Amino acid sequence: MGKPGMHPSHGPLGRQRRAGVRARQGGFTLLELMVTLAVLAILVSLATPSFTAVINGNRLTAQANDLVADIQLARSEAVRRNRTVRLCRSEDGASCADGEGNWTGWIVMLPGADPEVLRVATVKGAVEVSGGDTMNFRPDGLARDDTGSLLATTFTVCLPTTRPAENVRQVDVAGGSRINTVVASHATPGECP
After folding, report:
1. What is the pTM of this model?
2. Low-confidence ranges of the chain (pLDDT < 50)
3. Alpha-carbon distance 74 to 61, whole Å?
4. C-alpha angle 39/42/43, rounded to 5°?
5. Under DSSP, is residue 168 helix (H, G, I), strand (E, B) or coil?
6. What is the per-residue DSSP string for 113-136?
7. Helices assigned H by DSSP within 6-29
8. Fewer CB within 10 Å of terminal CB in the chain, N or C?
9. With the C-alpha atoms ordered 85, 88, 91, 97, is the resulting torsion angle positive or negative?
10. Residue 103: what are its φ and ψ, rounded to 5°?
11. d(CA 110, CA 128)
C-alpha cells in the first residue's frame, strides 16, 4: 500500500484515483448535453413569439418616428427659409403623387416653378402608411389646408400582424403643427385599414 505514516491518497493507488476523478471532470456526458439542448430548445420556442412582437413593434415605431421627423423637418425648413415647404406622398421620390392611397414613400420639398426635393423617405418592409394629407408648412411654421384653416390630419402606420396586438401607430397633426403619436390596435386583429 504505502509507507507507514503515509496518507493512502499519496501512494500509487491514490494517484490513480485522483487521475480518474480529473478525467471524469473534463466535460459533459452525452445525456447532460442532450438535456441541456432540450431545455434550450424549450426556452427558445417560448421566447420567439415575444421576440417577434418586439421586432415588429420596433418596426412600427421606427416608421412612425421617421414620419414625425420629416414633418418636423418640413416645418423647421419653412421657418428657416421663410417660404412654403411641402410634405407629400410620393411614388417616384421626385414629385408628389396624385390622389389617395397607401404611401409607399414621401418627400419634403420646396414647391414652385423650380421645385427642390429636400428629403426622400420610403416605407420599409411590410409596414403600411395611409391617410394623412399633403402638408404645406408656411413661413410661420403652421400647416394650413386649402381653405387657409389650420391643418388637422392623421397618418396611420400599420403592420398586418397580431404580434404585437397594438399593430397601429397613429401620427396625429393638430393645430397646424402639434404632433402626437398614439399606439393603437386595429378593430380586426392582424389587419390594417
Report:
1. 0.76
2. none
3. 20
4. 85
5. strand
6. SS-EEEEEEE--TT-EEEE---EE
7. 12-24
8. N
9. negative
10. -90, 120
11. 26
